[in-house]
């Protein structure tokens, strides 16, 4: 929200520089994003007309331009491409003081330039959307000081307004806060309260819960007119382009008072009446940008006798919009139900400045004042006799009843930890409400209509400390501690997963829980069986994700499009499904690896390897090792889902029974459908919710002291059937009753010449390291023999000669 420094002075006599004002706003909890100078902060620039354009003799892209300022003709060098003979442009003469410095006479490629033709950027004026020289109106008088066309130098403060303070979305609202903070009197918006002749259109509110108040006024026999320069300048400073006086005044009141208004072309309204109602089933509405949309009873509309003419609080309709020849209008000012406006704006992707204020809630007591002020401004600019303005029709079925909040000074001090005197608290609270009763305890504070965020004494305490100054809260060495609470098992597992994957070199992804239909299609399945939003922001955020995989693919795609081909990503978050007909959520973790390992920019380039099945399996196993009390198997016996490669897939099984996840290679067709160039993407996904439920929390991970003796190892090569997995052989070898090996590693896999049909050769490295000695050769032979006997008995393994 932009606030113009000079505009604030309409309501409060500020006597401090804009930079100091920005600090004051921050001190009372209003964040200031930037302070920018606006208006004409230059001198020596006049209106001139281009009379002749020649090519620069020493530069193809420069021109010699003869310009006339009304008293003389001079030549300037210009490189802009949008100039033409007859245009009127801003000419900065030698000695002109521009925002970036003083203009001096100069030779450009050997030709002397007697000035400079200026762009909006060089003059620091609002962008006109033209790439090149700023083109002035054709009727601008020659020699006119351009600075006078854009007003005095000013400042615009860009404020970050929190959602629960819609009353600050206006100049008057900010001035009201400053009047309390600075102890200065506040002036109300100017309004002469002119009496009109006759009544406005008949107004009917179908349901008072949808519209608390609705005012309207008819203005007739208006002459087409442009807004005065002072009004245009203020709108431009707010980032709004002026159109015509009728539209400009409604925008002006919105920025001034925070009350959105709408002007209907009276000639286009049918039946002489206005109905605030829900849309009928099957009704159509044509928006201002010429799009027809279908309505239903969930949408609040403004209708004439026969059809909707506006989406209440959001946008007007095409058929009732203001045109250049509009001579009579119906001016609307209202207070609509915030949730209804919010739903409509989101549903039709039409979040306007008006809807933003209605969604927060406008001040119902200011509705009529805004209508009167706007009508008087319009009549001042476009009107004729006062008889052409009707009286205000005000329908106010649900009048504002202020809520009383009770508190005592002692309670406020206890909340804040302060020792503020009663008079100080009263001095701060009194200007916030016209109804503060301090005659007896507890004090009674009547919540003003523009401060619906105040509901309890804690809210009042917040305002007291804002305006009294946060430095009134004494420093304390006493730490604030909440009662101890045991961390839920699944949350503990999420933290364990984050720690381990980060330690392995993975980068964490944090994304929305929502995905698009296209992303859901990557996983297969029926979209109707997945929980979805009734009113999504867009089709990109429609479904609650059933898996973390689409989010990881989106993140990898973002990096891939920017040249990053190597990635190690993970996300720990929620996934969703229906359980017994109701939406349910579970926590899980997923990882993705792609490209070279360890990294493209690894300093020892020759030792890089392309990420493969072993890498993703190793990462998953290392992660699962952090969860004691569970026996976790990696099994290749499961059927791969459609989005995974059928030959490079494994399931993660808990205690030999329950599937808790999967790992392997993403199917190349899935990667292609996701718009990715990489074909070798390796992923895993685990259900931490299931793991937390099944594992024994009392089981502690036992760590053996490292042996002080040297380890010993032997390599053996065995022939087994192709269907036998290394994981099963590893578990078998580790379970021998004799001297069990410390580790069993796969050193080599061979299928080919010399290996019988249907067999494969596995080379295993058995490592032994007892705690009490170094094994002798005879002991090593006995241990290897025990392992071979176990493998032979279970898998028919034979020692390869």
What's the layout of helices and strands?
Layout: E1 2-4, H1 5-8, H2 18-27, E2 31-38, E3 43-55, E4 63-68, E5 73-78, E6 88-98, E7 101-102, E8 106-108, E9 111-113, E10 115-117, H3 120-123, E11 154-160, H4 171-182, E12 202-205, E13 211-219, H5 229-237, H6 245-257, E14 261-265, E15 273-278, E16 284-286, E17 292-294, E18 300-303, E19 308-311, E20 315-316, E21 329-336, H7 338-347, H8 353-360, H9 367-382, E22 393-395, E23 404-407, H10 409-416, H11 422-429, E24 436-437, E25 443-446, H12 457-468, H13 489-503, E26 507-508, E27 514-515, H14 517-523, E28 543-544, H15 549-560, E29 567-579, E30 582-594, E31 596-597, E32 609-610, H16 613-624, E33 632-635, E34 644-654, E35 658-666, H17 668-673, E36 681-687, H18 688-694, E37 712-721, H19 726-734, E38 743-750, E39 759-768, H20 777-795, E40 798-799
Parallel strand pairs: 12-15, 26-29
Antiparallel strand pairs: 1-11, 2-11, 3-4, 3-6, 4-5, 6-7, 6-10, 8-9, 13-21, 13-22, 14-21, 15-18, 16-17, 18-19, 19-20, 23-25, 24-25, 27-28, 29-30, 30-36, 31-32, 33-34, 34-35, 35-36, 37-39, 37-40, 38-39
Helix pairs in contact: 5-6, 6-9, 7-8, 10-12, 11-12, 13-16, 13-18, 19-20
Quaternary structure annotation: single chain
Rounded to the nearest angstrom, the distance between the terminal CA atoms is 81 Å
CATH H-level name of the largest domain... which superfamily?
Bira Bifunctional Protein, Domain 2
Number of individual domains = 6
Average pLDDT confidence is 88
Describe the sheet with the most strands.
Answer: 7 strands, mixed
Q: How much of the residues is beta strand, in percent?
A: 25-35%
Q: Which CATH-level-2 architecture of the largest domain?
A: 2-Layer Sandwich
Task: Write down the CATH topology of the largest domain.
Answer: BirA Bifunctional Protein, domain 2
Question: For the CA atoms, what is the radius of gyration?
Answer: 38 Å
Number of helices: 20
- Total strand count, please? 40
How does the overall form come out from the CA principal axes? Answer: elongated
Helix percent reads 25-40%
CATH class of the largest domain: Alpha Beta
Regions with little confidence, pLDDT below 50 for 5+ residues: none
